[in-house]
Known about the structure:
Strands 1-2-3 form a 3-stranded mixed sheet. Helix content is 48%, strand content 27%. By secondary structure, it is α+β, with helices and mostly antiparallel strands. It has helices at residues 4-19, 43-46, 50-65, and strands spanning 23-30, 35-42, 71-74. The longest helix is centred in the N-terminal third of the chain and has 16 residues, at 4-19. It is globular.
Amino acid sequence: MLDKVKVEKALDKVRPMLAADGGDVELVEVTSDNIVRLKLTGTCGCCPMSQMTLKNGVEKMLKAEIPEIKNVEAL
């Protein structure tokens, strides 16, 4: 199972990109099968492009930092 601290450190590298548009991301859960569940907050939480941001931005960056991640899901 992935270490939540390791995931948080990787998210810290993503946060400036989200903050530039008034958003942020909150780590909700890391499952035993290496799925990361996040909650997009601020303007990202209600943006129609949030799924694209999650998959093409956040997930891509997290998987580059932590290859063991199988999937990133928004709650």
